[in-house]
Amino acid sequence: MTVPRRPVTRALAALIEEATGRPCGTGALPRVRVGDEWVPAPVPYTVLDSLPGVFSGPPLADWHADAAWSYQVTSVGAREDQAEWLADRVRAGIVGRTRGRWTCELALSQGRVIDRELHYDSAGEPSVSAAGAIVSYVQRFTITVTSS
Questions:
Q1: Would you say residue 86 has pLDDT above 70?
Q2: Regarding predicted confidence, which is higher, 124 or 101?
Q3: Taking the mean position of all CA atoms in its chain, how far away is CA 112?
C-alpha cells in the first residue's frame, strides 16, 4: 500500500512553518488571518509545490510500499538577503541534523519517513511585478516514505 501524498505535503508545510517561523502556502501564496478575514501573507513567506513522485518497494512484495515524493520550496522575500535567510532556515529544517537525528520532526499518521534529500538549491532571483520587487529562492527536496 502506497503512503498517500497529502499527509506528507501537510506535514512538510507544517515543518517549514515551524523551522522558519513564517507562513507556508501549498501551491499558492499563503494567507494569514487579520481580524475576521484572510489576506495574502506579507513577505517573507514560502510556497510548497508538489513535483512528480517515484514508487518502489521490495522485490516480490509490494512494489509501491515506498514513495519518493518530490517538492519545490520557493522562499520569497523583499530583498535577496531576506530570501536567502528564509531558504537557509528551510534547508536546516528539512535536511538539518543534530547528533545524527533530524533537527525537525516530520511525523506522519500513515507511514514513516526514511529519507530526506536536497536536490537543487538556487541563488536568489529578483523579479519585478505590478506589486513591486520580490526575490525568490528555489529549493527542491525529495521525502521518501514507506508504508512498512
A1: yes
A2: 101
A3: 17
Find out whether 25 and 42 touch, Cβ atoms under 8 Å: no
The CATH number linked to 14 is: 3.30.2000.10
- Amino acid present at 77: G
Calculate the alpha carbon distances from 126 to 18, 19, 73, 82, 85 in Å.
Answer: 26, 24, 16, 12, 15
Residue range(s) defining the domain that contains residue 44: 5-58+65-146
d(CA 39, CA 35): 10
Q: In the chain, how many domains are there? A: 1
- Joined grid coordinates for residue 43: 513577505
Per-residue model confidence as pLDDT tens digits over 19-68 = 999 999 999 999 999 999 999 999 999 999 999 888 775 555 555 678 89
Cis, peptide link before residue 44, omega less than 30° from 0 = yes
Span of 13-17, 53-57, 119-123 with lowest mean pLDDT: 53-57
Nearest Cα neighbor of 45 from 19, 20, 80, 76 is 76
* 62: Cβ contacts below 8 Å, ≥ 6 apart: 1, 147, 148
Query: What pTM did the predictor assign?
Result: 0.88
